[in-house]
């Protein structure tokens, strides 16, 4: 039987497609289905093989539908990859009512005005999130509706993605037979699931270490202030292990998960790993410390690039609520300790902070953060969904018409 009010998060990641199905019940979101399927159709967060991606999405949806006992017709989907850009933009309009009272349609118009920012060629806007508003000379207003003035201004953060990435992703969803309720930057989605209001007020950075990419979202004074994607993820660590230990990628992945550590200094030089414990054919014995050295080198590269993003906004070592890690890559042993040292900030692995019910323990894992966050984003922004036609172009007419609605 179809359940009308379900909200579905579909995270199309470089290594897997994850689906979570939520049913809003009395202020809680009850998880009634979830699934995870390996995805071979992506590189570094973008679709490179439509057929493979469509089959991973279809399989994941089928499994989630079976568990939830309801068909899935539309989803909130994640977008990532280093085609993602973020920039600040200012929008200014004249307040429309003769008596000078700011209305909801004024705030929508000023956000539209902020969208007229010049993005690099072949990019389109995924999000335009106002940081705050100014009415005449008064600035720092979170919600200006009901205030009086002549001029309404906003400072917004605009997140854009490559038109081709948006097009290919929407094509995959349409071929898998589902409509898109909204397309959400994966770092922003994960932050919905993991960050508290208080952390966002204090200043916090969400770092989602996936397979092919590391997505970043920084919040200050409650609002998103910076977003970025580093084109390196945990699969790069696996590749380095395969090269360094001369093993297959499958073997390297198992070694990383079972014996990996980001801190060689904590491992005794005499500690050895018998590879036969993973593959009986393999008689090698390797030094665990050497394995950690390989992992350490790549992890340091990722941490340095994260630090560069903090430097870009003048917050190196200066975010009071620190760093919240998620994504499969965040499960690496000793990563939290290394990140604390290198970033000189408090660091923790995130846990869902929202009220969820149902199959909660099954999805309390970094690989589901984006998917859970997508559902929450969907519940908060049902009307804000961008609508994509079959060719993947954002339906500009709808957002244009929206400004005339009350
Ligand atoms: N226990 C673990 N220790 C270290 N790494 C792990 C562990 N478990 C999973 N990983 C790594 O996490 C990665 C997958 O994470 P995740 O599912 O978040 O990526 P994704 O969403 O598919 O990719 P992306 O976000 O880059 O598109 C894999 O590279 C995997 O090796
Ligand atoms: Mg991911």
Bound molecules: adenosine-5'-triphosphate, magnesium ion
Strand portion: 25-35%
Question: What is the domain total for the residues?
Answer: 3
Total count of strands: 19
Helical region count? 12
| Average residue pLDDT | 91
Q: Determine the structural class based on helices, strands and strand pairing.
A: alpha/beta
* Rg over CA atoms: 22 Å
What is the global morphology?
Answer: globular
Largest sheet: 6 strands, mixed
CATH architecture of the largest domain: 2-Layer Sandwich
Low-confidence stretches: 385-406
Question: Helical residue percent?
Answer: 25-40%
Strand order of the largest sheet: 11-6-1-2-3-19
CATH superfamily of the largest domain: ATPase, nucleotide binding domain
Distance between the termini: 36 Å
User: What CATH first level of the largest domain would be assigned?
Assistant: Alpha Beta
CATH topology assignment of the largest domain: Nucleotidyltransferase, domain 5
Function: Cell division protein that is involved in the assembly of the Z ring. May serve as a membrane anchor for the Z ring.
Protein name: Cell division protein FtsA
Family: Belongs to the FtsA/MreB family.
Domain SHS2: 7-194
